[in-house]
Design brief:
Elements lengths: L3 E4 L5 H9 L3 E4 L7 H7 L5 E4 L7 H6 L5 E4 L9 H6 L3 E4 L5 H17 L1 H9 L17 E5 L3 H12 L3 E5 L5 H7 L2 E2 L2 H7 L2 E4 L13 H6 L4 E5 L8 H10 L2 E6 L18 E3 L8 H21 L16 H21 L6 E8 L6 H13 L11 H7 L3 E7 L7 E8 L3 E8 L5 E6 L2 E6 L3 E8 L4 H11 L4 E8 L5 E8 L5 H8 L4 E8 L1
Parallel strand pairs: 1-2, 1-3, 3-4, 4-5, 6-7, 6-9, 7-8, 9-10, 10-11, 11-12, 13-14
Antiparallel strand pairs: 13-15, 15-16, 16-17, 17-18, 19-21, 19-22, 20-21
Helix pairs in contact: 1-12, 5-7, 13-14, 14-15
The structure holds 1,4-dihydronicotinamide adenine dinucleotide and 2-oxoglutaric acid.
Length: 527
């Protein structure tokens, strides 16, 4: 059945077309995002949800999203999505990190000009037939200092444009390297220095616990009198009441706001203020940007739903469409090895080490590790998947480590999964040329078996007569043996057997196998 995607915000028709072309069923309901009750009622029918900023994907919506696999944000900020709740539910959250950056940067520059020359007020006055030539005295941008807070994609483009306008740019961004600052031609400074020196300040950070209220009254009082502030990032970055007080006192000469603490902002204490320019979250609203983000989000979501490729996900390692076919059998192997170990581990897991040997060591091991963790945790947490497994392991205090070796002893590629409890237990496997995963080593004992839906795993002392009695019990119980794999350390020492059977394994049969004197452990496994 074709996957189904709901588009609940206004997106370019390009997105609808791309979904259809890629074999994804699409339901375009551009106003649904505003109706949270209806969204809650129908979200369970969809595999994907494509949004802009109007749809609020809360924990409650996610709890009702029984089939949801991916949320695609046609834009950058994902503060309207409860990403931890999505991750816990195993839903990928992806965005389109570059599609609207130029457009948003241009909006910030436009807002700066609008403030410097009071264009909106002058426009309204002229339309009103007032011709107030003496009322509107502006300031030049040339030689002024622009303070950029957050110098990532958008902040960098703003900085480049401002340098083109012959402004001096100072930037505060803890993650901006000294080299990148030099390349951009900006001066990297601390926040207080930026406040002290800037004539104009523009915000380009995401809204996080660290950036929320980054401009409050104490920050404003560090700024030059007559500073002008532009916010085309997120409303919560500025304490709006503090900004109003500073505008009223004249400490801040002007503010240009595209974003507000509460959106849609239909009434606001700053509306009507002569020195405030407002736009209704238009930063990304150009034909070009909307085409870019619609196309990108639809391609990314379709690639994931159809091919398993992951791009620009915030809660899952990337898997390109090119590598997906090669990676897929190893993802399966990693998950099955994890599942094997998870089903056999009863004690608390302290750590998991995944060793990648040979060709597989050069593959996307983050994705493979996520798959292995999924397998280990699934016996405990039925709904865990590659998105949620790393965070679930972390929450449970499981230390996860990876080890990579360029060559594998007997195979082109080998994955060995070591579960650390009070002891270490290892299981290893490979993928043969037929693309099917095989288990090739258990607890250091070589053997070879395919994973099968119903298996019996037995560890025993290597003694004559065991196999006959074991097979006899299966036969008496009417259980057909499909494959039988054996291995041992040395004659008379530890031995294991892994048997594929047709159908379910009754608990009484397992108890009888367990009672064979040479048997140490007998377990039913499912894959
Ligand atoms: N008005 C609109 O329509 C639009 C608004 N946005 C907003 O713009 C924001 C920035 O977008 P991009 O530049 O693409 O993101 P980005 O991730 O490329 O850049 C954000 C920068 O902020 C920096 N940063 C993080 N915490 C910081 C802190 N505490 N102090 C200073 N800098 C900090 C990061 O290091 C990063 O360099 C988005 O998160 C989104 O909220 C984005 C697109 C459109
Ligand atoms: O989709 C929009 O209009 C808003 C864009 C935005 O805020 C973002 O991409 O972060």
């Amino acid at each position: 059945m074709a996957p189904r995607v709901l588009i609940s915000d206004k997106l370019s028709p390009t997105a609808v077309q791309i979904f259809k072309d890629r074999g994804v069923e699409v339901d375009y309901q551009p106003d649904l995002g505003k109706d949270k009750d209806k969204l809650f009622a129908i979200i369970g029918n969809y595999d994907g949800l494509a949004i802009r900023s109007a749809t609020k994907v809360t924990e409650k919506i996610i709890s009702a999203a029984k089939n949801l696999k991916v949320i695609g944000r046609a834009g950058i900020g994902v503060d309207n999505v409860d990403v931890p709740a999505a991750t816990a539910k195993g839903v990928i959250v992806m965005n389109t990190p570059f599609g609207n950056s130029i457009t948003t940067a241009e909006h910030a520059i436009a807002m700066m000009f609008a403030l410097a020359r009071q264009i909106p007020e002058a426009n309204a006055s002229t339309h009103a037939g007032k011709w107030e030539k003496n009322r509107f005295m502006g300031v030049e941008l040339t030689s002024k200092t622009l303070g950029v807070i957050g110098c990532g994609n958008i902040g960098s483009i703003v900085a480049e444009r401002a340098i083109g306008l012959r402004m001096h740019v100072v930037a505060y961004d803890p993650f901006l390297s000294a080299e990148r600052a030099v390349d951009l031609g900006v001066e990297k400074v601390e926040l207080d220095e930026l406040f002290r020196r800037a004539d104009f300040i523009t915000l380009h950070t995401p809204l996080t616990d660290k950036t929320r209220n980054i401009i409050d009254i104490s920050a404003i009082l560090k700024m030059k009198k007559g500073v002008r502030i532009i916010n085309c990032a997120r409303g919560g970055l500025i304490v709006e009441a503090d900004l109003k007080a500073a505008l009223d006192s004249g400490h801040v000469a002007g503010a240009a706001l595209d974003v507000f603490e509460v959106e849609p902002a239909t009434e606001h204490p700053l509306f009507g203020h002569p020195n405030v320019v407002c736009t209704p979250h238009l930063g990304a609203s150009t034909t070009e940007a909307q085409e870019n983000v619609a196309l990108q989000v639809a391609e990314q979501m379709a690639d994931y739903l159809i091919k398993g490729a992951v791009q620009n996900a915030l809660n899952m390692p990337s898997i390109t469409a090119d590598e997906a076919p090669r990676l897929t059998p190893f993802v399966k192997l990693a998950e099955q090895l994890g599942s094997f170990a998870g089903q056999l581990t009863e004690e608390g897991i302290k750590g998991i080490r995944i060793e990648y040997e040979g060709d597989v060591a050069g593959m996307n091991t983050r994705a493979l590790t996520a798959a292995a963790l999924t397998g280990v945790l699934r016996p405990l947490l039925q709904t865990v998947n590659m998105v949620s497994a790393p965070i679930m392991a972390k929450e449970r205090g499981i230390q996860v480590s990876e080890l990579r070796r360029e060559s594998a002893e007997n195979y082109d590629s080998l994955i060995r999964l070591v579960v650390i409890t009070d002891r270490e237990r290892a299981v290893a496997g490979t993928v043969f040329a037929d693309g099917r995963p095989r288990i090739v080593e258990i607890k250091g004992i070589k053997m070879e078996a395919e994973f099968a839906p119903s298996m019996i795993y037995v560890t025993n002392e290597d003694k004559p007569g065991f196999i006959g009695r074991f097979a006899g019990l299966l036969g008496d119980a009417g259980i057909n043996i499909a494959t039988f794999a054996l291995g041992r350390h040395a004659p008379g020492e530890d031995a294991i057997c892994l048997v594929e059977v047709d159908g379910e394994i009754p608990a009484e049969l397992l108890a009888e196998v367990q009672a064979i004197p040479a048997v140490r452990q007998a377990r039913a496994l499912t894959f």
